[in-house]
Amino acid sequence: MPAEPSVSPSRVGVWLIGARGSVATTAVAGCAAVTAGLHPPTGMVTETGVFHEAGLPALSSLVFGGHDVVDCPLPKRAESLAAGGVLPHDLPSAVTAELAAADREIRIGGPLRGDTRSEEELVDDLARDIRDFVRRSGLARAVVVNVASTEPVPEGDALPASSLYAAAALRAGCPYVNFTPSMGLHHPRLASAAASSGLPYAGRDGKTGQTLLRSVLGPMFAQRALAVRAWSGTNLLGGGDGAALADPAAAAAKNAGKERVLADTLGTVPEGETHIDDVPSLGDWKTAWDHIAFDGFLGTRMVLQTTWQGCDSSLAAPLILDLARLVARAHEVGLSGPVGELGFYFKDPVGEGPAALGEQYADLVALAGRLRQLAQPPGSVEPRAERGDPEDLPGEDR
Questions:
Q1: Residue span of the structural domain in which 298 resides
Q2: Same domain, yes or no, for 198 and 216?
Q3: Ranges of Basic and acidic residues compositional bias (predicted)?
């Protein structure tokens, strides 16, 4: 029998649910490009000075695998993204080896059409795939990250696919990140397992565009005592996410997080709705419009209109790498339960925490300080925080 691979304390797995999708492909290709010095780590907060000496795993130490129900190889998927302008045109050929290596670690997920396996059998099979990946690759640990298409809000007691994957992560002993608005660990049937697992987890629904802007503008209106009368929005997007969100039930799950940010930052629910329209010709690109009607001094009526045009995968991929590194480090130092300080990345964060981006960033900086302290050898003195860090970094669990 072949010898078991030795475990490397520096190698960390990133197991992606939806591993052959646009976001996952961009994350894998981007990690390889940054590691090789082909591109700077633009958009990666963990590569800023705030996280210097926080003990995060190096990008070069990340090993990728995952589950998907489609069979398009990652190198081919990357070529398609380059043709659409999502990736630099020469990047797929430059990182073909890394894409192929990740593709070899992708397993068929589930449930598949006509699948007769029970929930227990599905979770067991999915967890076995993850454990085999960790053993085969000699990893110190792995983080499971859900980047699959948005699913409708489930009806009844059965676990939806996202929750089956989340349960498998727990069973495999892996921290879990839900970057989608799908149910995942939020399902009531998983509450006890999540609480007793001793694992850190974070989510849900990555904040990459329209809601990112809302989490800045909402506090601005509240802090300036300007009365927002109505806030309406429209999203145009294509690709797999656009197709998934063409389902009204899936769109409702997505919009709930967008509207919750406004309620939390404004302290009230303004008139207006957010609409999502599938425009297949846009591919991975999206446009978001907001129309904000507000009252100023003496009831003067005014309007702010915003337009956000961005590439969904390019906005999301650096956040996936950030979160994988942060949650892996949290696991390494023994943190467990919802990591509320990661609310900076999400529309609907787990745990308790603020909704305004500035306050969320302050929490993230505090987490960086805790991780730096935990990375210091016993008896050493924590260096003075860099400019922008709080002077007093908390040293106890929050």
A1: 210-311
A2: no
A3: 383-398
Asked if residue 4 is part of any domain, the answer here is no
**Within a domain: 393:** no
Please name the helix (run of DSSP H) or strand (run of DSSP E) that holds residue 141, with its range, or none. Answer: strand 141-146
Number of helices and strands in the chain (H, E): 12, 11
Burial class (CB in 10 A: 0-12, 13-18, 19+), 336: middle
Does the bond joining 394 to the residue before it have cis omega, within 30 degrees of 0?
no
- Both 243 and 176 in a single domain? no
Please report the pLDDT score of residue 384 as a whole number.
39
Q: 143 and 93 share a domain?
A: yes
Q: How high is the pLDDT of residue 397?
A: 38
Which DSSP string corresponds to 212-260? HHHHHHHHHHHHTT-EEEEEEEEEEE-HHHHHHHTSHHHHHHHHHHHHH
- The whole-number mean pLDDT for each consecutive block of 10 residues of the chain, a chain of 398 residues, reads 63 98 97 98 97 96 97 97 96 98 97 94 98 98 96 91 98 98 96 97 94 95 96 88 68 69 91 90 92 97 97 96 98 96 95 92 97 71 39 34
Q: Which residue reads 């029998």 in tokens? A: 1
Please enumerate in sequence order all residues whose Cβ is within 8 A of that of 118, keeping only pairs 6 or more positions apart, or say none.
none
User: Which residues have CB under 8 Å from 215's CB, separation 6+?
Assistant: 207, 261, 265, 355, 356, 357, 360
Instruction: Check whether residue 158 and residue 180 sit in a common domain.
Output: yes
**Are residues 96 and 172 located together in one domain of the fold?**
yes
C-beta of residue 286 within 8 angstroms of C-beta of residue 209: yes
Report yes or no: 371 and 56 within 8 Å, Cβ to Cβ.
yes
Query: 78 with 144, same domain?
Result: yes
Q: What is the pTM of this model?
A: 0.89
**Which CATH number do you get for residue 246?**
3.30.360.10
* Residue 388, in any domain of the structure: no
d(CA 162, CA 146): 8
